[in-house]
Structures are given as structure tokens and as C-alpha cells.
Specification:
Helix content is about 35%, strand content about 15%. The chain contains 12 helices and 13 strands. The model is unreliable at about 1-5 (pLDDT under 50).
């Protein structure tokens, strides 16, 4: 809510309903410590899973929520208005997501060439596409060399890349079973956001702990960080989106909401315990900068462009869309 050192004055007062992830970067919106002139809000933070938040966002009375980047682009290409703002809640490195057997000879992503990679997720899901993006663009694998057992290939109508896609396991449990039997060489699971996707202490680590004989393929934070520094890739697969009615009622809502989210993000440290704060600071130290900025800068633009380009080449969207075309 500041422009060149001056307090921005908004001409209208608006109230919005937000669906937010329960995370340190949203807590200041819950407790009222963030104030933005001309904006008040109620924050719903009970929904931990991103897909469930996407569903809740489409409820008629929600003004601020999230959508998957691919789904959002599909709507844009059908004529929907631009309603996204450059705020990115839960980016994931998408490198620790690959699991292999403990006795596997696979020790590096390059060893996946010619191997069966499986998941209950589809190739165009947020995590599925982002992991494949990292394999292709950060580790330089040809995706055509992978045997991809993900989702339902019958729904993969426009396979522009000619990927070898087969039916994937129906659940994570089935995926683990196929992995341990040797029918899959690697399994893709979802992980936690931000620094958890680098260091663990997340749902993926819990899943591995419950499955003897399984390990994470890329489990070295320094390797994850080096890959980021070399490639600049830290996928963005979800966007914050606004409701049409809120924007129509007050054209200044996008700027106000972005100001509120950005201020809450800056106050994240106030809501982390000592152990989690160390993870957050260690990630920044390893990467060399803080990637969790709410803006469309060169780093964010590169990651949105890389993801969008891949889902276009896979046939999941009708045309490539420039990052600048996405935001209101």
C-alpha cells in the first residue's frame, strides 16, 4: 500500500472473503495485524489441500483464492477475464518428489532414462507436470525417453510430444506396491511447500517413513539448491485469483489484495517456531536469495513461462500464453 515511499490512497472501501492455505505466510491476515487502507477481509484457512482450495475458490461468495495455472489458462483461452495477481503461496522445488527402492541402482535423475515412472497424478497435474518440467529443463532428460505411468492416458487426447504414457496407479498405496514389486522404477508423490520441499519434514517424508524399502531419489538440499542456482527453476504451478464480482465492484481490489498478501508474506517469520524458521533461512542461504516474492520479476516470469511451455507442448493447453497475459 506504498508507492515510491508514499501511502497509496484508495478511493473505495471493499470487503472480501479469502480462502487461504494455513501457513506462516498467511497468518498475519488471520490475526488482523496487517492493515490495508480501503480493504477488510475474512480469511478461511481450514483447507490444507490445494485441490480442495481450488474447489472452494469457485464458490460464489469467495473473492480471493487459488487456481492451477493450467486450468486458469484453459479458462482464459475460452474467453474468461484475467483475474490472477502475482502472489505464489506454496511453490515447491519438485525435486524430492521422486521415490525409488532402497536397493535401486538409480542414484541421479539421469538414471531414469528408459525407466518406468509412475504416479496416481496425471502428467498435466500441478505436481506431475512440474516434476517432469524439472527433469526436462533442469536435469536435461528427454521426456520421450521415459516410460510414464501416470493418470489415465485415454484422457491425454493431444499428445504433441509423443510421450510414452500408460495407465498409472489409482492411489499412492498402489504406487508403492508397484514400486516395491519392481513394476515401477520411480514413484512421484506430492511434497510440502517452500522450504519443506527442500529439507523434508513434510507429507512425503511421512509417506516414506511408513513404507520400508523406499527412499527419496534427490534428498540432498545442496543438490536441490545447486540445481536452482544453475537453472533458475523453482516451479510455479498455482496462481492467486480474484472473483469477478469483487473486481467489478472495486477495480482497486487487485492492488489492495496484493498489498495485503505481500505484507503477510513479509511477516512469515513471526509465525514460525525456531526449527521452522531455521529451515526458511537455510533455504534462502542455500539458494542465494529469497524466491518467495510476490511479483512478476524475471525469476517468476521464467518459471511461469517454463511450466506453460511444457503443458502446451504436452497438449494440455491450446496455445502458449505469455506470463504477462495472465495477470489483471
Amino acid at each position: 500500500n506504498y508507492v515510491k515511499g508514499k501511502l497509496r490512497i484508495y478511493s473505495m472501501n471493499s470487503h472480501v472473503k479469502m480462502v487461504l492455505p494455513p501457513a506462516p505466510w498467511t497468518k498475519a491476515l488471520e490475526d488482523g495485524s496487517v492493515k490495508v487502507p480501503g480493504l477488510t477481509w475474512e480469511a478461511m484457512t481450514e483447507i490444507a489441500g490445494a485441490p480442495e482450495r481450488f474447489v472452494a475458490t469457485h464458490a460464489k461468495d469467495v473473492d480471493v483464492g487459488e487456481n492451477g495455472l493450467r486450468r486458469y489458462i484453459i479458462d482464459l483461452l475460452k474467453g474468461a477475464p484475467r483475474l490472477a495477481i502475482p502472489a505464489f503461496f506454496g511453490r515447491e522445488h519438485m525435486q524430492r518428489n521422486l521415490l525409488v527402492r532402497e536397493d535401486s541402482s538409480l542414484i541421479h535423475p539421469r538414471d531414469l532414462v528408459g525407466k518406468n515412472i509412475g504416479s496416481r497424478l496425471s502428467v498435466w497435474s500441478g505436481t506431475g507436470a512440474a516434476v517432469l518440467m524439472m527433469l526436462e529443463q533442469a536435469y536435461h532428460l528427454s521426456l520421450g525417453d521415459l516410460l510414464i505411468c501416470m493418470g489415465d492416458p485415454d484422457k491425454f487426447h493431444n499428445n504433441r510430444m509423443g510421450l510414452q504414457v500408460r495407465h498409472g496407479p489409482a492411489s499412492d498405496d498402489e504406487g508403492f506396491d508397484l514400486l516395491l514389486k519392481g513394476e515401477l522404477d520411480a514413484l512421484i508423490l506430492t511434497s510440502g511447500p517452500r522450504y519443506f520441499s527442500m529439507f523434508g519434514h513434510d507429507r512425503l517424508e511421512e509417506a516414506v517413513a511408513a513404507q520400508p524399502g523406499v527412499k527419496v531419489l534427490i534428498d540432498d538440499p545442496s543438490m536441490i539448491a545447486e540445481t536452482y542456482r544453475r537453472s533458475g527453476l523453482y516451479p510455479i504451478s498455482d496462481l492467486v485469483v480474484l472473483g469477478k464480482k469483487a473486481v467489478a465492484a472495486d477495480p482497486e481490489v487487485p492492488a489492495k489484495v496484493l498489498a495485503a498478501l505481500s505484507e503477510a508474506n513479509k511477516r512469515s517469520s513471526n509465525y514460525r517456531d525456531e526449527a521452522e524458521e531455521k529451515l526458511a533461512q537455510d533455504e534462502i542461504a542455500l539458494l542465494g536469495s529469497d524466491p518467495h516474492q510476490y511479483e512478476l520479476g524475471p525469476e517468476q516470469r521464467k518459471n511461469i513461462a517454463a511450466y506453460t511451455d511444457l503443458v502446451y507442448r504436452m497438449g494440455a493447453i491450446e496455445r502458449y500464453v505469455e506470463p504477462e497475459e495472465l495477470f489483471i
